[in-house]
Amino acid sequence: MYDGGSMLKNKVEIAVIKCAEEQIMQAELAEKTGTFPPYEYSFDDNWERRQDNMNSEIKLDTKLVGDIKGKFYVPAYQRGYRWGETEVVRLLDDIYSTEGKRNYCLQPVVVRKNGDEYELIDGQQRLTTIYLIYRFMNEESFGFIDEPRFTLSYKTREKSEEFLKSIDDSRKEENIDFWFLCAAYESIKNWFSRRDKKSTLTNVNKYFDEIVKIIWYEVGESEDAIGLFTRLNIGKIPLTNAELVKAMFLSKDKDEDVDKEKQEEISLQWDNMEKELHNDSLWYFLTNKTNADYQTRIDLVLDLISGKPADNREKFYTFFKFDEMHKTKTFDSIWRNIQQTFLVLKDWHGNHELYHKIGYLIASGMLTLQKIFDLSIDKTKDTFKASLDKYIMESIKIKNNYSDLSYEKASDRKKITTLLLLFNVESVRRNGEHSQWFPFDKYKFGKDGKVTWSLEHIHAQQSEGLRTQEMWKEWLSLHIPSVKTVSNDSDELISDYK
Question: Which of 21, 41, 103, 149 is deepest in the core (most CB within 10 A)?
Fold first, then answer.
């Protein structure tokens, strides 16, 4: 783009210079004010209080749906069954989408043992729907498929227990519970009717016995069931992958002995990791996702270890992978893996060169954190850096000269944005030596979660910019090292970057 003392002609070149001017100035200001990279984070003080569901009395396991047995009762503090067609069909679709090829985990069922019964604290809607599915399959197969192996009763709705055993559509107007149960049963019937009934009955029953699992979350008898139910249902302690994995380490129902002191140590270190990940400098260096994408930020680390595909939407994929992992590994080795993975991410964040190269690749969308993490496994630092450089070069390759790009062409905007980002990251990395760090958190989400460094922002049609030749000369004299990183020839640009 810029060659010696020639005039800057292309609009892309103007955008590059104006972007660099503005962002370098912001970076310099940030450095002076100490806003980055010294770690700063705003951590929700209530977060630790949301962990009160994690205690030594937890039993955590995964169970095949076909293995659910026992007596369950729905306590008086819960409303009745309220699932509609949408929820019922979604559950059946999810179950059938496994096609017998993979494990699938339903959301947790939270229970408390009370004598020879289980108080069903959370999961009434799912468990009732599963019961209805079993009831339908038993009737349609003329008893060939077994009845449900568990029972459901209701502390304040005794007639509902009887009604569940024999759904009678003629009675649906008697009360609201009957109406919803009949509607759900009809939805199940309609879902099966749209498929080959015989094979579908066989397959669903097989999936229940071999593929589909529930997350069994059993709390101790001393747990305040009403308080736990309230917190779960107002979203104060959602059972995320992270909290379920944490419960694995804190659970008392283990195949191996884990002393209480070790559990307390794990709990403390776990909370410290979560707090450190609330440092936005670290978080937005690692990901382009917002707070809304992760209820707990340590989920990002766990997703890396589980190898969760970016397009996988199974909510508890990561927990299920950790559950599978424990079949061949001890909790101690799994915990060391979590610690080591987190330390690797922190090391990248603290390394000036890796911080900028990795940060750019993630921010530009060229690579995901998962891909970068996979690239680093069993690699020397030099080999790893060479791999990053290769992808950086790939990110800015074009068929023609960079001077042919135009801001006004919609097809060019993505490439221009990527090029501008690299220009600015490199400007900060090279000029800042080790005193300046490009603020990926501010680049991505700025103040109040709003993107402030968009292409439109940096190249506003009515912006003032550098208006005189003297101003151009002064700016170029100050930032000539950055300008030299950009060349008319793509090969030269790539070579200069390396």
Answer: 21
Helix then strand then coil, % of the chain, to nearest 5: 55, 10, 35
Burial of 325 (0-12, 13-18, 19+ CB in 10 A): middle
User: Largest alpha-carbon pair distance within the chain?
Assistant: 91
State whether residue 121 is helix, strand or coil. strand
Closest CA to 73 of 164, 199, 138, 174: 164
Residue 265's contacts (CB-CB under 8 Å, 6 or more residues apart) are: none
pTM for the model stands at 0.66
* Strand partners of residue 110: 122, 217
Q: Is the pLDDT of residue 342 over 80?
A: yes
Any idea which residue has 């060349």 for tokens? 487
Q: Where are the domains of the chain?
A: 1-55+259-498, 59-219
As a whole number of angstroms, the distance between CA 455 and CA 443 comes to 11
Q: How far apart are CA 60 and CA 53, in angstroms?
A: 12
Which DSSP letter does residue 406 get?
-
* Phi and psi at residue 419, to the nearest 5°: -65, -40
Q: Is the pLDDT of residue 239 over 90?
A: no
Question: From CA 348, how far away is CA 358, in angstroms rounded?
Answer: 8
- Contact between 214 and 124 under an 8 Å Cβ cutoff? The reply is no
Judged by DSSP in three states, 107 sits in coil
412 versus 191: which is more confidently predicted? 191
Characterize the bridge pairing of strands 212-219 and 109-114. Answer: parallel
109-114 and 117-122 beta bridge pairing: antiparallel
Contact by Cβ (8 Å): 416, 407: yes
